[in-house]
Specification:
Helix content: 40-55%
Strand content: 15-25%
Number of helices: 21
Number of strands: 22
Bound molecules: adenosine-5'-diphosphate, magnesium ion
Strand order of the largest sheet: 10-22-21-20-11-18-19
């Protein structure tokens, strides 16, 4: 409990004890009215002074109506009816409800931050023979750091020395340990479990995985869900209406039916108390918040509750191919050399690797890995990426063009042979075709099963957009039984296609786009929900996306959809339950069967029950059948 909660609790207890002692006292002794009012009033002030203060301030600012105002009016009325005890009770129980809500909100916020208490405090920087503890921000690319067992990996890098197991649970929710050894890339935020690791840092702290995650978390809940906003707006109109209605309940029977003032004042007050919208106002955001933090535990970061709402109605998912459905790790199948007089196969690979060395595309990274040698940056000049087609520039002062058939045709390079085996990269030097590299990229593991699960949770349409050749796109699509596939698309054409899909969707359906951010950041932005791959994903992807899958596992998308549906269901349950219950009490009230007591208890009770219901639902684990 924090300080505010503690002080509120103390006030509730003090005020409650005063009431109890006084009631016991008044059983044995006769108390005069003056003392009675005095004691009740003190206990009323202790527990409710902040509500009174807030209401007066609201009225002063002409912002009259919120739930606190309702409660305040109700207590004033109760005093008027000489129901002093009830007046205190209204505040007392209202505050118990407040306290409960407050604890629930703080608890659900804590869950998010504790699921992600991953900010690294320090890095052990290796300098010659000594090791120094420094701020991770001070470490440069290519520096060497040491990570001891039990420490959190502060920066992304490649293992140079040692071997160990990494606990990835706070990043991806994956409970299996990951075994790493020399040459493996490791990501920040994971925890080193067993051996000592020496790693060469590959990214500055600002660009590291852990920083990306933290940035995402800090921006969570900026975007409120529709239901949440609806409830807020509803409360704004609703509360003044309730006050008006209570007023009418009071005066109409008196004027037209000659009813007794005290009877109808009491009924009006009961109505006021029952109509308090607290349960809705609080349980909806709490449900969404818990769902966001539950997703975070599974390694799915959701940037706002609106995306949960949209995920719960997804009917179409559009995938990018490379890095999303495939692993994005190409292997060189074949190198073909056309101009054998001047170049051999090794030359072809070297020139292509040099040309690609500055790019971020999975093809570029894979080629450089296949080449395997250090790149001398002095040998390359004027490198320009041609998005969705390839790259141009100068290598050893000779003009070089690397890319797909489309690019070669556009640049007037002739004599190219295409191969069906895989994705082909063609190389032209000084505008002459020199050779090709054939690459293949494997589909992700268990892809078919995961796509099946997506259908199980209600997705009707699985679509793939790719810049790759038609035969490859269609081969992939057939293999994993997609509903439709569009190939040979340039980045802007992918956006156009997605836009068409978005235009054709029905109301109350949403379209999700899943990509790695390489050549598809715009698509991530325009989709109803843009889902990015957290690990292979670029910074642009992290920026543009609405949901990030921290370990690039599409299974987590299924988890996110399940959680979103759960959230939606809980919210509906809670809304229905509170409206139904309050309606019932109201009916009894109108017939004269209830008193203020019942009204107060039912109001607070409903709030607490809806909150408990939300917690119950989000405690459950998600099982993928
Ligand atoms: P995808 O839609 O599969 O993610 P991209 O739109 O990123 O693919 O790229 C489409 C095609 O453009 C690739 O299949 C490849 O032929 C070519 N291409 C893109 N980037 C490069 C590059 N850096 N080097 C060579 N070819 C590239
Ligand atoms: Mg791509």
């Amino acid at each position: 409990m924090n300080v505010c909660q503690k002080s509120l609790m103390k006030r509730i207890i003090t005020s409650g004890l005063i009431l109890v002692f006084f009631l016991i006292f008044s059983i044995f002794h006769k108390v005069n009215d003056f003392l009675k009012i005095y004691i009740f009033f003190i206990s009323y002030l202790i527990v409710g002074y902040d509500i009174i203060f807030k209401t007066v301030k609201n009225i002063w600012n002409l912002k009259i109506f919120d739930e606190k105002t309702l409660m305040f009016i109700a207590t004033v009325g109760a005093f008027f009816l000489k129901q002093y005890f009830e007046a205190v009770l209204i505040f007392l129980l209202y505050q118990v409800g407040e306290l409960f809500q407050n604890i629930a909100v703080v608890k659900s916020k804590d869950q998010i931050s504790s699921a992600l208490k991953i900010r690294p405090e320090y890095a052990n920087l290796k300098q010659y023979d000594s090791v120094k503890k420094v701020d991770p921000k001070q470490v440069c690319v290519e520096d060497v750091i040491v990570i001891k067992p039990g420490e959190r990996v502060p920066l992304d890098g490649v293992v140079m020395n040692g071997g160990s197991f990494l606990d990835m649970s706070s990043i991806s929710g994956e409970s299996n340990l990951l075994s790493v050894g020399i040459g493996d890339e490791i990501i920040s935020g994971s925890v080193n479990v067993s051996g000592v690791l020496e790693i060469r840092v590959k990214k500055k702290y600002e660009n590291s995985t852990v920083k990306k995650i933290l940035d995402l978390i800090e921006n969570v809940s900026d975007k409120k869900s529709k239901t949440e906003n609806l409830i807020k707006r509803f409360a704004k109109i609703y509360t003044p209406c309730v006050v008006l209605a209570a007023f009418l309940i009071l005066i109409i029977p008196i004027i037209f039916l000659g009813g007794s003032f005290y009877v109808w004042l009491e009924r009006a007050l009961i109505f006021l108390v029952i109509s308090c919208p607290c349960a809705l106002v609080i349980s909806v955001p709490i449900s969404f918040f818990l769902a966001v933090s539950k997703s975070a535990k599974y390694g799915v970061l959701i940037k706002g509750s609106i995306f949960l709402e949209l995920l719960s109605i997804v009917k179409t998912i559009v995938f990018d191919k490379t890095g999303t459905l495939t692993k994005g790790k190409f292997t060189v199948k074949k190198i073909i050399c056309q101009n054998i007089n001047e170049f051999d196969e090794q030359n072809v690979l070297e020139i292509v690797a040099l040309a690609e060395s500055k790019l971020n595309h999975p093809i570029a990274k894979s080629i450089c890995k296949a080449y395997g040698k250090q790149i001398n940056l002095d040998r390359i000049k004027n490198i320009r990426e041609i998005y969705g087609k390839g790259v141009s520039g100068f290598v050893d002062d000779r003009e070089v063009l690397v890319g797909n058939l489309k690019l070669m045709n556009e640049c007037g390079i002739n004599g190219i042979k295409e191969y069906d085996l895989g994705t082909s990269l063609h190389l032209a030097v000084d505008k002459k075709f020199v050779g090709s590299i054939i690459l293949t990229d494997d589909l992700k593991d268990n892809l078919k099963e995961v796509l099946g699960k997506l259908r199980d949770v209600g997705v009707l349409n699985l679509v793939m957009l790719t810049g790759d050749k038609k035969n490859i796109g269609e081969y992939v699509s057939k293999k994993i039984s997609l509903d439709s596939v569009f190939c040979e698309l340039l980045p802007f054409e992918k956006v156009e296609k997605l836009q068409t899909i978005l235009n054709n969707k029905k109301v109350n359906e949403s379209v999700v786009f899943v990509g790695d951010g390489v050549n598809d950041a715009a698509a991530l932005k325009i989709a109803d929900v843009g889902v990015a791959m957290g690990q292979v994903g670029s910074d642009a992807a992290m920026e543009a996306c609405d949901v990030a899958l921290m370990d690039d596992d599409l299974k987590k998308l299924v988890v996110a959809i399940l959680i979103s549906k759960e959230a939606k269901k809980t919210v509906k349950q809670n809304i229905f339950f509170s409206l139904f219950f309050k309606g019932l009490i109201f009916l009894f009230g109108a017939l004269g069967f209830t008193n203020i007591w019942v009204a107060i208890f039912s109001d607070v009770g409903v709030s607490i029950l809806t909150i408990l219901n939300a917690f119950r639902v989000f405690k459950k684990k998600v099982y993928l059948k």
